[in-house]
Design a protein that fits this description.
Blueprint (H helix, E strand, L loop, with lengths): L1 H17 L6 E2 L6 E4 L9 E4 L1 E6 L6 E11 L6 H18 L3 H8 L4 E11 L8 H11 L14 E4 L1 H19 L8 E4 L4 E4 L2 E3 L19 E7 L5 E7 L6 H13 L2 H4 E8 L6 H16 L3 H11 L2 E5 L9 H5 L3
Parallel strand pairs: 5-6, 6-7, 12-13, 13-14
Antiparallel strand pairs: 1-4, 2-3, 4-5, 8-11, 9-10, 11-12
């Protein structure tokens, strides 16, 4: 029983290490507990909550709460049936949390807010190498909605899978190393970058005016590109672009350059460092050649091509080391 408890605690320890660095704050309510179900159609006595994290949405200014289910699993236990079962349970938990006086009293209070579900899956033997979303999607859609009639549609649930956990852990190990070596500006203001978003002809989301500790949004957590910016009193930013794609073609990098320009990152930047998570060997010469092609395609005017090349020259491309988080059952069980 103690061994099982220690294994289960690994995912919670990992969450406390990584999630605050996304500028998600752990809510100081009851952890690893349950609260009464308020909806008879759920056919449940209660709903579990391992932890709750909160952040202020950078576009809307609303409080968002993420209700987490933490899983510490061996690779052979990460099966579609188990994951879909956890997602179903989370969907019911999320549905009930919106009307539960007990949940709101413990975690959110009376303030207006939005709730999101979160499933964090830590692979404790580091042997699971599949794309979790693709692994479970067939089973998930086979069983929904016919077998989930009691769940309100359009619930938002994020999955932080083993590969994303390793990526986030690696990203913050890299950040710590860059900061200790003074390779990025020693500034007090830093956060995740969010561009203006056009939703339709009549609606757009405006980027925050201040990027001080702006959080990563839940729907960005498995993105192939994460933008982080640093700034002081000047109007220019220093950007770190954490990149999960492989860099396998010129077109891939040219698309990335187009994003950097359309998001107005290039026009706002002092420097732009693209930090590649697991690139192919040829990514580095392909990146260099992609700059030349992108500049050449930008105009038939040699002067404009030269100006574009000067802009692109501020962009560098390097890799960073993969850091797999590791816990030991005996260590987790030792007195603090």
């Amino acid at each position: 029983m103690a061994e099982t408890k220690n294994i289960g605690e690994m995912a919670a320890i990992l969450a406390r290490k990584i999630l605050p660095k996304l500028y998600w704050e752990e809510v100081q309510g009851p952890a690893d507990t349950s609260w009464p179900c308020e909806k008879p159609e759920h056919k449940k006595k209660d709903h579990p909550t391992d932890a709750v994290y909160r952040f202020i949405h950078p576009y809307t200014g609303r409080e968002n709460y993420i209700i987490f289910d933490f899983k510490s699993m061996a690779s052979d236990s990460i099966q579609p049936t188990n994951i879909v079962s956890s997602l179903k349970s989370m969907a019911l938990t999320l549905d009930c949390s919106k009307v539960s006086e007990t949940w709101n009293r413990r975690y959110a209070g009376d303030a207006s807010h939005d709730n999101i579900g979160g499933l964090l899956v830590y692979n404790r033997d580091d042997a699971y190498k599949r794309d979790l979303a693709r692994h479970v999607e067939g089973k998930l859609f086979d069983s929904f909605p016919e077998q989930w009639p009691q769940v309100t549609k359009r619930q938002e649930i994020i999955i932080i899978d083993p590969e994303t956990i390793t990526f986030l852990n690696s990203m913050y190990s890299d950040l710590a190393e860059l900061e200790s070596e003074k390779q990025i500006p020693d500034m007090s203001k830093r956060g995740f970058f969010h561009p203006n978003k056009i939703l339709n002809d009549n609606e757009r989301l405006l980027a925050p005016l201040d990027y001080y500790e702006t959080p990563l949004l839940p729907d960005q957590i498995d993105s192939n590109i994460i933008f982080r910016c640093y700034y002081s009193e000047s109007e220019k930013f220093d950007f770190l672009v954490y990149y999960r794609d492989k860099g396998e073609s010129h077109e891939e990098f040219m698309y990335l350059f187009d994003q950097l320009i359309s998001y107005q990152i290039v026009s706002q930047a002092n420097t732009i460092q693209i930090r590649a998570y697991d690139p192919v060997d040829d990514a580095f010469p392909l990146f260099k050649r992609a700059k030349e092609l992108f500049a050449a395609y930008s105009s038939h005017d040699d002067f404009i091509v030269e100006l574009m090349m000067e802009r692109l020259d501020m962009i560098t491309f390097t890799s960073f080391d993969k850091k797999v988080p590791k816990f030991y059952e005996v260590e987790v069980g030792m007195p603090k």
